[in-house]
Amino acid sequence: MIKDRGDLERAAAAWREEQKKCGLKVLICAGTGCVAGGSMEVYRRIKELVEAEGLNTLVDLDKHGDSKKIRVSPSGCHGFCEMGPIVRIEPKGIFYTKVKPEDAEDIVEITLKKGEVIDRLLYRHPVTGERYIEEENMPFYKKQKRNVLKNCGRINPEDIFEYIGNNGYHALAKVLTEMTPEGVCQIINKANLRGRGGGGFPAGIKWDSVRKENSEIKYVVCNGDEGDPGAFMDRSIMEGDPHRVLEGMLIAGYASGAKEGYIYVRAEYPLAVKRLQKAVKQAREHGLLGENILSTGFSFDIKINKGAGAFVCGEGSALTASIEGNRGMPRTKPPRTVQAGLWGKPTLLNNVETFANVPDIIINGAEWFLGMGTPNSPGTKAFALTGNIVNTGLIEVPMGITLREIIYDIGGGIPGGKEFKAVQIGGPSGGCLTKKHMDLPLDFDSLEKAGAMIGSGGLVVMDEDACMVEVARFFMDFTQKESCGKCVPCREGTKRMLEILERIVSGNGTMEDIELLEELAITVKTGSLCGLGKTAANPVLTTLKYFGDEYLAHVKEKKCPAGVCRALKGYSIDPEKCKGCSKCSKVCPVNAITGKIKQAFTIDREKCIKCGACVSTCPFNAVEEG
Fold this sequence. Notes:
Layout: H1 5-20, E1 24-29, H2 32-36, H3 39-51, E2 59-60, E3 69-75, E4 87-90, E5 94-96, H4 104-113, E6 123-124, E7 131-132, H5 139-142, H6 160-165, H7 170-178, H8 181-191, H9 203-212, E8 219-224, H10 233-240, H11 242-256, E9 260-266, H12 270-285, E10 290-293, E11 298-307, H13 316-323, E12 347-351, H14 352-364, H15 366-370, E13 373-374, E14 377-378, E15 380-387, E16 393-398, H16 403-410, E17 420-425, E18 431-434, H17 444-449, E19 458-463, H18 468-482, H19 488-505, H20 511-527, H21 531-536, H22 538-546, H23 548-556, E20 571-573, H24 583-587, E21 593-594, E22 602-603, H25 613-617, E23 623-625
Parallel strand pairs: 1-3, 8-9, 8-12, 9-11, 15-19
Antiparallel strand pairs: 1-4, 2-3, 4-5, 6-7, 10-11, 13-14, 15-16, 17-18, 17-19, 20-23, 21-22
Helix pairs in contact: 3-4, 7-11, 7-14, 8-9, 8-11, 10-11, 10-12, 11-14, 18-19, 18-22, 19-20, 20-22
């Protein structure tokens, strides 16, 4: 039991002292991606081999003098998920990628015993071929600034003392013993921490608003309902550093006057749920949750609420309705959540990444936070980098970094030597950015001016082969299905927009459809009740704005420039390449290809069903799509 600040500092010092006994520490990534790739088998095998040399996981491998204590431990996500399972060996920072259970013996014999690096397990840059031993020198990590992710991949998320030993809960101790609730709100306000869930609303104003509400009962709610396609930032934080989230909520509880908090996390995140539950249990057992925390008189507890996975529950009023046991639907505002949120009481609601920023701001001060990012968007932002890019994964970068730096310096560029075409930022709530935005600073205000938004931080990169009309159709299909249907503009508007987009990609669109699509998009954006409807039109509006020529090609020429839309595909035979072998006509199931042997064949496009059998059969590449 940690009874006061002195106990906390002694626990941290004891943990650090224990670490000094470890010559080596083997961290095996236990994030969802690496677990799916078999990392726990790697962990068990390495642990088994190390234990065979001695006892438990703290083992003396060299019994003849130069002692090496080795600790084998699971860790949170390193972010470079496509390279998993990942094994990191400290203090040298050796970073092994795509490790299999059968590699465990070599890791123990060659690296742990002899101190040598295994070349085949090192990361090699896919373009330059250069190999990297340490994580910090790899291009994927070099331009990152990891604050909220700094413990992910470095500590065991299921051990509260690893968090405490890395200054965990020290910010809580500081606010409880040195600061007033008003002072905490002031430092968050001065740091200009803006909500990382997408809206970018200043957290300090929200915190102070709840503090000023005259109510005996108040709540703190953490939004862990991450529904954007391609986004997994909050999941990684909850899995990799759950105590950081709890500490941020505890500080918010003290600042606002709340005694109870909820973490709303979707049930599709079982690993995050499990680690949060374990973290809450550990914090209670050690006196960091519950009554009279650190003997300061402050009491606060946290419950985990599993959501069913509805995108609309990312909206504050829908989320609180869901916690109350009702259907997750938004309501009209005012009153706002800060005045009447959960069970009608003042509620401080932020997302996972926002709370995860709080402990460092308290420890390092507002000026430290303001020293990163841009003046109106300070700090860092975690993005999930996916799509047509060499390096995919989770990154954390200073606000204001450009798209070019993310795509080429961190992401390694576009694979296959193809051209960058666009990036969908912020998922269904965001919009498409193009080549002309490559040097645009990524912050809340710049993106809003470009018609997009950071959203929760999904970054889907697309190359020259992407059809932007189909991209708009994909996201509209998602938001239409996720609309709760409460308000007419969203319920009917998204459905009508989807129908129009489906007509266009099927080759049946008209010029009137394009005009109506834009008109509907503006109506849904301005008339919808909540953030889902207000942002649902962003992918449509930005693709119309930046890729209008592709819409025209689909409608006027009945052609998909990227060759993606199946209904608009057509095949023809290049007479210069055709040798008249007749193989294509023999595989055509509808006899659409005719000709004479040793003369160029032709395709009847009226008969052609676009199965593509002729393309794969032709030995001379004479059949062309388009």
